[in-house]
Amino acid sequence: MTWTLIGICAGTWALQWLTRLFTPYDLSTVLGYAPALTASQPWRMLTSGFVHAMPSPVHLLLNMYTLYLFGRMLEPLLGAWRMAALFLLSVVGGSVGVLLLGDPWVLVIGASGGIFGLFGAMFVFMRHFENSIVPITVLIVINLAFGFLVGGVAWQAHLGGLVTGAIVAALMLPRLRRRI
Prior knowledge:
Structural class: mainly alpha
Distance between the termini: 20 Å
Shape: globular
GO molecular function: serine-type endopeptidase activity
Transmembrane segments: 45-68, 80-99, 105-126, 133-151, 157-176
Pfam families: Rhomboid
Main location: membrane
Order of helices and strands: HHHHHHHH
Subcellular location: Membrane
């Protein structure tokens, strides 16, 4: 599932390029999320997680590398479908964070709400299985700080994804106990 999610994001980015080259449209504006559009176009709360900044691939590459690292750790524990559910719910949770805390007219894009959901899940699982939470806590703090210190980063999506991922992971724990 990790590779599938990466493939969807990479494929969407390729479509962004093709759309940009051959049409007057920008898929970021068609699929990105702004709170003001929630009532009329709620699907954007999910589609925004698969669109990344253009034309530089840096945004896509950073998110996909992190998705790869954490996906490869979490997917064996969760299974493919739970992994997909965790990621997708965290993307939507990131959009809820933007809805509650962001500017209604600012468009947000990127998989980082889903990525932060993986961070939140990793924190919950490491704590539950009595591993040190120091490394994941440091990673979360650094990445949250990055969102506050660098312009153009939707810290609201990071926070929403983090909280959602932690909640989803906590709800998954009873099933994991039986599975392990």
